[in-house]
């Protein structure tokens, strides 16, 4: 956990800056003090007051220097920093090639949560459903031609995903001329339980509905042979947890 910076230390650092540095810091401070509309999920395990305050400060600081919503890498850094400022233990994935989760956080005496972090600000995102262009790579896609083996590989992958990863946390940024709207969504890996019941015929479809017997399905799986990756689409927002929404006015 990081040691908080004292106000006296901050004043000392600012006094040592060049005028150009002071100008940049002034812009960041103005952004952090700027108005923002916040809506948090009641009794959220994630967006506690201290976490939400730390995360919002990092959103504001980002937009002091950029008009664009956070990328996945920037979101990962902001998410982990907010967790540390909330007093939680944070451990990034031990390997950059870790297939499923990006970070581990521990709240008080609870069991660690292994979390996959995603971010998107793609043009034309639908407010009602979520798209994850790359859930994970799957090298076997190129070579698996037998129908039953394709089905077994899909089932095995999602079973392994559930065993390793507790949830997916996704930050979506909707950009307009005057503001950026963010929403922070938790996609529980329990949604993948229904993949266990995938039949061989359905596993051959280009877009696989999950569950198969519900319309509209909770989500759809695309097994992309050209890129050897698994894509999720049509994830219904109303069956996920929206931990927070923020509206930040444009700074430029």
Q: Any key phrases for this structure?
A:
252 residues
Describe this structure in words.
With 252 residues, the protein is an alpha+beta fold. It has helices at residues 7-15, 19-32, 49-65, 72-85, 147-164; strands at 36-40, 89-92, 103-106, 113-120, 129-137, 167-175, 179-188, 207-210, 219-224, 229-236, 241-249. The strands form two sheets. It has a seven-stranded mixed β-sheet with strand order 1-11-7-6-4-3-2, with helices on one face. It has a four-stranded antiparallel β-sheet with strand order 5-10-9-8, with no helix packed on it. A hairpin with a 6-residue loop joins strand 3 and strand 4 (113-120). The longest helix is centred in the middle third of the chain and has 18 residues, at 147-164. It is elongated. The relative contact order is 0.16. The model has no long low-confidence stretch (mean pLDDT 89).
Topology:
Blueprint: H1 7-15, H2 19-32, E1 36-40, H3 49-65, H4 72-85, E2 89-92, E3 103-106, E4 113-120, E5 129-137, H5 147-164, E6 167-175, E7 179-188, E8 207-210, E9 219-224, E10 229-236, E11 241-249
Parallel strand pairs: 4-6
Antiparallel strand pairs: 1-11, 2-3, 3-4, 5-10, 6-7, 7-11, 8-9, 9-10
């Amino acid at each position: 956990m990081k040691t908080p910076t004292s106000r006296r230390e901050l004043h000392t650092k600012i006094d040592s800056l060049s005028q150009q540095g002071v100008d940049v810091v002034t812009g960041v401070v103005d952004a952090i003090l700027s108005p923002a509309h916040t809506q948090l999920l009641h009794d959220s395990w994630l967006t506690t007051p201290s976490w939400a305050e730390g995360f919002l400060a990092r959103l504001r600081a980002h937009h002091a220097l950029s008009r664009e919503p956070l990328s996945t890498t920037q979101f990962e850094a902001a998410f982990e920093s907010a967790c540390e400022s909330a007093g939680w233990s944070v451990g990034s994935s031990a390997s950059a090639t870790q297939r499923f989760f990006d970070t581990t956080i521990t709240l008080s005496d609870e069991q660690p949560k292994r979390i996959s972090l995603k971010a998107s600000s793609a043009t034309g995102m639908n407010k009602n459903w979520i798209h994850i262009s790359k859930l994970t790579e799957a090298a076997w896609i190129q070579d698996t031609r037998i129908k039953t083996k394709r089905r077994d590989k899909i089932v095995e992958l999602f079973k392994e995903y559930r065993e390793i990863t507790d949830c997916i946390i996704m930050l979506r940024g909707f950009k307009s001329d005057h503001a950026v709207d963010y929403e922070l969504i938790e996609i529980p890996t329990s949604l993948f339980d229904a993949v266990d019941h995938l039949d061989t015929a359905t596993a051959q479809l280009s877009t696989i509905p999950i569950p198969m017997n519900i319309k509209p399905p909770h989500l759809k799986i695309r097994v992309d042979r050209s890129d050897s990756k698994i894509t999720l689409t049509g994830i219904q927002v109303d069956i996920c947890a929206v931990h927070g929404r923020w509206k930040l006015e444009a700074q430029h």
